[in-house]
Write a structure and sequence with these properties.
Layout: E1 10-12, H1 32-38, E2 50-53, H2 57-68, E3 73-77, H3 84-89, E4 93-96, H4 102-108, E5 123-126, H5 131-144, E6 149-153, H6 157-161, H7 163-167, E7 170-173, H8 175-188, E8 194-198, E9 201-207, E10 217-221, E11 229-230, E12 241-245, H9 261-269, H10 272-296, H11 300-311, H12 319-322, H13 326-355, H14 359-364, E13 374-377, H15 381-392, E14 397-401, H16 407-414, E15 419-421, H17 427-432, E16 440-443, H18 448-461, E17 466-470, H19 474-483, E18 488-490, H20 492-504, E19 509-515, E20 518-526, E21 547-553, E22 559-560, E23 593-598, H21 600-610, H22 613-616
Parallel strand pairs: 2-3, 2-5, 3-4, 5-6, 6-7, 13-14, 13-16, 14-15, 16-17, 17-18
Antiparallel strand pairs: 1-19, 8-9, 9-12, 10-11, 10-12, 19-20, 20-23, 21-22, 21-23
């Protein structure tokens, strides 16, 4: 029996504050005034357009999300894009251009005045699939308007981490990092872990025995009683806690899918063709040895040497052979010619085995008959991240990709994960990966048809396997799920679009972490002008069991994840050696952001405290 599947925990709140997905059963709903405080967003759009640059399906999804939120959108699209007309039909102002230049950005609305007046555009979204193009455009726009809000999608996570140092205040979104945890949850059919972006870091919440140490904070103690203790100061059983950390703990796996290794590689090289050629050559050597011994009167070892030299074309340099009868010499020449042909064939077969299409399979194929593993079809940027997470979770996995130079293939070799190189929609390829005995199949290549064919073939080979597809076409995905019953389908663009829209409007993203029948909410809050939180210390905002401040970001600075709670300072306490005031003791100022975890009621009280008087007053 399959475990019940809750919806994903990440929720993005729009202008109305209505969640796009429902969390599991939790606390009683808050009163109306607290519900209004919780749902606070950035308010309605101010009428200035959002400039969006890109040409792929993510661009289409983002424009759809922004237009549906009431934003004016100026889309810079490559005229050759197949989504060009569709984006125009959505109501966006479309500008066709193959190369984005400074003059084009100025015409689109990035035109800050020298006197400090802001640009006509209120945000710039860069969704090009080429990171270099995105960085170039972002730097150009930053020179034109130092205060412009920039949201950029980066494929390379290492380069994305450096964007803040290049651009200052910007939002970097990485599609694979957003999508991979969702695919892993589908493959494992569980909701034990919740991945989130909070305080400028990629974090994960879950049971303490799954989260890598050191833990950032304890969210709930589920071992003390039937009702979990939320945000405890201490825990009697740390292993039963739900904690927040930066990654999952690597599990030592005693039973794993093993790569083929060199023994299997030699077996593949010595295939039937090689064995047949070797058998013919061996027969010629044995027959030649007998003829030379009996008719030439030469001892056995010398006869064997002469016969082997003739067959392998190594040449004959022996005085006694010169005195042989003519028919023996002619036979030796014919045998030598046959040996030349056989050696050429043998060389061709071995070269084909080593350098041909089966090279990657020889190096990283599957050994034995694996069971209960996960097969990942498609080792691109998303597949690479999926392999890393599955390995950290201690799950046996096999990768499949048609390109032996795909990003995930190198990741698989580094993690010692077997890789089968071939078309994932081919039956023999899937059989080589052990699909008929696997637990789950993830079809996450870059093509909808390939993923659909892979899913159908996997279902035919293993009807009990849980199948998840990556589908770019939303309508096709719905029809496939409804009519074919192939399992879940997900789209990276559908996961990225809400995050981009929330970043454009600077709306608050909120993550729900279940703890038994209760939930905790993790989010970021900004201190507004005129709020009662201005001038208060972080320690004063903490509530036992109701709210905990995790990190703070001073206006224009990076996030500070130093401990925010502790004993009150006493007279005579020494100043820290660094001379800096701890984050928990510094007073809050307008524009500061804080990352918090709390209950619904605790978060509602915090939002009331950080709201300005005008925004908290009834309209």
């Amino acid at each position: 029996m399959r475990r019940p599947r809750w919806g994903k925990s990440v929720t993005f709140f729009g202008n109305s504050g209505e969640s796009t997905e429902s969390p599991p059963g939790s606390e009683e709903p808050p009163p109306p005034e607290r519900a209004a405080a919780i749902s606070g967003a950035a308010g309605p759009p101010d009428g200035r357009p959002v400039v969006v640059c890109g040409s792929d399906r993510t661009m289409l999804r983002v424009v759809t999300e922004l237009v549906s939120s009431g934003d004016r959108v100026t889309a810079i699209v490559n005229p050759d894009s197949r989504h060009f007309d569709r984006i125009s039909e959505l109501g966006a102002t479309v500008m066709g251009a193959r190369v984005i230049s400074e003059s084009l950005l100025r015409r689109a609305g990035v035109d800050a005045a020298d006197d400090g007046a802001p640009s006509t555009a209120r945000a710039l979204v860069l969704l090009d699939t080429n990171d270099v193009h995105n960085v170039h455009t972002a730097l150009t726009a930053r020179d034109m308007d130092p205060e412009l809000r920039i949201i950029v999608q980066m494929v390379n996570p290492r380069l994305g981490k450096q964007m803040n140092s290049l651009l200052g205040d910007c939002v970097v979104i990485n599609g694979p990092s957003l999508a991979a945890p969702a695919f892993v949850s589908d493959a494992l059919e569980d909701d034990e872990l919740t991945w989130l972006d909070l305080g400028g870091r990629r974090l994960v919440a879950g049971q303490a025995d799954l989260i890598r140490e050191p833990h950032l904070t304890v969210l709930a103690d589920t071992s003390s009683s039937a009702t979990p203790d939320l945000l405890p100061l201490s825990s009697s059983d740390p292993e039963g806690d739900i904690v927040l950390g930066t990654g999952v703990r690597t599990v030592w796996r005693s039973h794993d899918v093993r790569p083929a290794g060199w023994f299997m590689a030699l077996r593949d090289i010595l295939d039937s063709r090689v064995r047949k050629i070797a058998a013919v050559m061996a027969f010629l050597i044995v027959a030649g040895t007998g003829i030379i011994h009996f008719f030439g009167g030469i001892e056995w070892w010398r006869a064997l040497y002469l016969a082997a030299g003739v067959v392998t074309s190594a040449g004959i340099d022996d005085d006694k052979f010169n005195d042989a009868q003519p028919w023996v010499k002619v036979s030796a020449v014919l045998v030598q010619l046959t040996g030349i042909v056989l050696m050429a064939l043998l060389t061709a077969v071995v070269v084909d085995s080593l350098i041909g299409a089966r090279l990657s399979r020889i190096i990283g194929g599957v050994r034995g008959r694996p069971r209960n593993h996960v097969v990942v079809c498609g080792l691109g940027t998303v597949g690479s991240r999926v392999l890393e997470i599955l390995t950290e979770r201690g799950v046996a996995v096999v990768g499949v990709d048609q390109d032996d130079e795909a990003p995930g293939v190198q990741t698989a070799h580094r993690l010692r994960i077997p890789v089968v190189v071939g078309d994932s929609s081919n039956e023999e390829t899937l059989r080589s990966a052990g699909v008929q005995r696997c637990q789950s199949v993830l079809a996450i290549t870059d093509g909808d048809i390939t993923n659909l064919e892979s899913a159908i073939m996997a279902r035919d080979l293993n009807p009990d396997a849980w199948i998840t597809m990556r589908m770019f076409d939303h309508d096709l995905a719905q029809r496939v799920e409804r009519r074919l019953g192939l399992g879940h389908s997900r789209s990276v663009s559908m996961l990225v679009a809400p995050a981009v829209a929330a970043a454009v409007a600077n709306r608050r993203s909120q993550v729900t972490v279940p703890a038994g029948r209760r939930v905790l909410l993790l989010t970021e809050v900004t201190v507004e002008l005129g709020s009662i939180a201005v001038g208060r210390r972080l320690g004063e905002l903490d509530e036992a069991g109701g709210l905990r401040v995790l990190a703070r970001q001073d206006a224009g600075q990076s996030w500070d994840w130093s401990p925010t709670s502790g004993p009150e300072p006493r007279p005579g306490d020494r100043t820290p050696p660094s001379g800096r005031t701890p984050a928990s003791e510094r007073e809050l100022r307008v524009g500061d952001r804080i990352a918090v975890a709390g209950t619904r009621s605790g978060l509602a009280r915090l939002l009331m405290a950080t709201r300005g008087q005008q925004s908290s007053a009834p309209s």
